[in-house]
Amino acid sequence: MGVMNSMQIGLQGLNTHGRRIEIAAKNIANLDTPNYVRKISVIKAEEDNPFSTFLNTNTSIPGDNSVVGGVSFTGTVQDPTPQEKVYMPGHPDADEDGFVKMSNVDPLVDIADAKMAQRAYEASITVMSMAKTMAQRALEIGG
């Protein structure tokens, strides 16, 4: 795996976990919005080769610049948790029986999700920083 591959994986992590933080923030912002259904981020791990495959003398490191490993944001799904119904007959969002579906956002869950995404975002920054340092050291050796 090359330095540029490491940078690409770090960039994928920044994009993916940045989106996760945005989704959690949007959920928290809509905590009291009637009819709002909580969104859950869906991420996908890209195919990865274990490090042991590169230690095998019969295996060569691929020469192409394809990214091996990483993570990607694939979208959101709605939280299936049932929404609480509150009787508010005059509310514009009330159904024919006078009930309004409240948001199914649990702020503690979304705060925890945002915190995990923040840690993953920070880890991606660390990956990119380490790749940058390795590239700089390699240039010092050649110069």
* H/E element sequence: HEHEEEH
Tell me the number of strands: 4
Uncertain parts: none
Gap between N and C termini, in Å? 23 Å
Fraction of residues in β-strands: 5-15%
Give me the secondary-structure category.
alpha+beta
| Mean pLDDT level | 87
Question: What is the helix tally?
Answer: 3
What is the total domain count? 1
Task: Give an overview of the whole structure.
The protein has one domain (3-79, 105-142). It is of the alpha+beta class. Helix content is 47%, strand content 15%. Strands 1-2 form a two-stranded antiparallel sheet. It has a two-stranded antiparallel sheet with strand order 3-4. The mean pLDDT is 87.
Entry keywords:
single chain, 143 residues, alpha+beta, two-stranded antiparallel sheet, 3 helices, 4 strands
